[in-house]
Amino acid sequence: MMHPLIFVLGAVFFLMFDGAYAAVELSDDMKEMAKMLHDQCVDESGVNGALIEPCSRGDFADDGNLKCYFKCIFANMGALSDDGELDTDAFESILPPDLHDPLSKMINNCKDPKGADACEVAFNFNKCLYTTDPEHFLVI
C-alpha cells in the first residue's frame, strides 16, 4: 500500500503543474491517484469543474463550491484543518527540489490567509499565491 503522503504528493503535482512545468513527470499510478483526489473534491464540493482551470490565469470565480474545492484539496494534503488553520510546513515538505525556492517564497508570503471559514481561507490562499507570483502560480 502506498503511503498517504506519497499519494497526496502525486495528486498535488498532477493538479498543480501546467505546461510550464512539463519536466515534472509523474507515473501513471500518480496521475490516476491525482485524478481520484480531483474527482473526490469535485464531488465533495459540488464545484462546476469549468471554474477550476481559469484560476491558473488568476480568474477566481467568487463561488462557494470553488472555495470548498480548494479546501478539500488542501485538507487531503494535510495542510489545512477543518477550522481553517493552514500548515505551511506541510506545503513546503512536498515541494519538488527544482521548484522549491520560488514556491517556498510564495507560500511564505501567503502563510496567514484570512477567511470566514476553511473554504474561504483556502480560496484566499490561492488568490494570494497567484498575486505573489503569477509566473509560478500552480493550480491545485
From TrEMBL:
Keywords annotated in UniProt: Secreted, Signal
Keyword Flavoprotein: no
InterPro entries: PBP/GOBP (IPR006170), PBP_GOBP_sf (IPR036728)
Signal sequence extent: 1-22
SUPFAM superfamilies linked: Insect pheromone/odorant-binding proteins (SSF47565)
Compartments, record wording: Secreted
One GO term of the biological process aspect: sensory perception of smell
CDD domains attached to this UniProt entry: PBP_GOBP
GO molecular function: odorant binding
Pfam families: PBP_GOBP
Keyword DNA repair: no
GO cellular component: extracellular region
UniProt record similarity statement: Belongs to the PBP/GOBP family.
Protein's UniProt name: Putative odorant-binding protein
